Amino acid sequence: MVVAYLGVRSSWAVAPIRQFLEPVMPASPGVYRVAKIVDVFASGPPRRLSFADIVRETGLKRATCHAILVAMIETDMLIRGDDMKYALGHGLARIGLAARDTPAPRR
After folding, report:
1. Could you give the CA distance from residue 61 to residue 6 in angstroms, rounded to a whole number?
2. Which of 5, 11, 65, 74 has the most CB within a 10 Å radius?
3. pLDDT digits (tens, 9 = 90+) for 28-67
């Protein structure tokens, strides 16, 4: 628990910091960042992208993007060729095949 100022009679009260972050921060920012990268590859025909292309198309900071790309390569979600370009990996293909057989949720 983090001590946070609540502005009540100039006193301090104990409140979870999450209560203050929820309106401005998604529950799991990392998942949203990975989804941005996946969307770049899934938004058109199969293609190979450079690091600069991915950074430009996602709007992510270079360091953040690099860290995520490394993890995505290690988990087989992406591959990086000898030309240093990235492409969808077999891990995402397995997810796509599984999702294809899942009924769409009703809205």
Report:
1. 33
2. 65
3. 889 999 999 999 998 888 899 999 999 999 999 999 999 9
Element holding 79 (H helix, E strand): strand 78-80
Residues 1 and 16 sit within 8 Å (Cβ to Cβ): yes
Q: Which amino acid is at 52?
A: A
Domain that holds residue 89: 27-100
pTM of the complete model: 0.70
As separate numbers, helices (DSSP H) first and strands (DSSP E) second, the chain gives: 5, 4
What Å distances lie between residue 5 and 10, 15, 20, CA to CA? 8, 8, 11
In sequence order, the 6+-apart residues with CB closer than 8 A to the CB of 59 are 36
> How many CB atoms neighbour CB 41 within 10 A?
20
For residue 75, which amino acid is it?
T
CATH code at position 53: 1.10.10.10
Count up the domains in the chain and report the number: 1
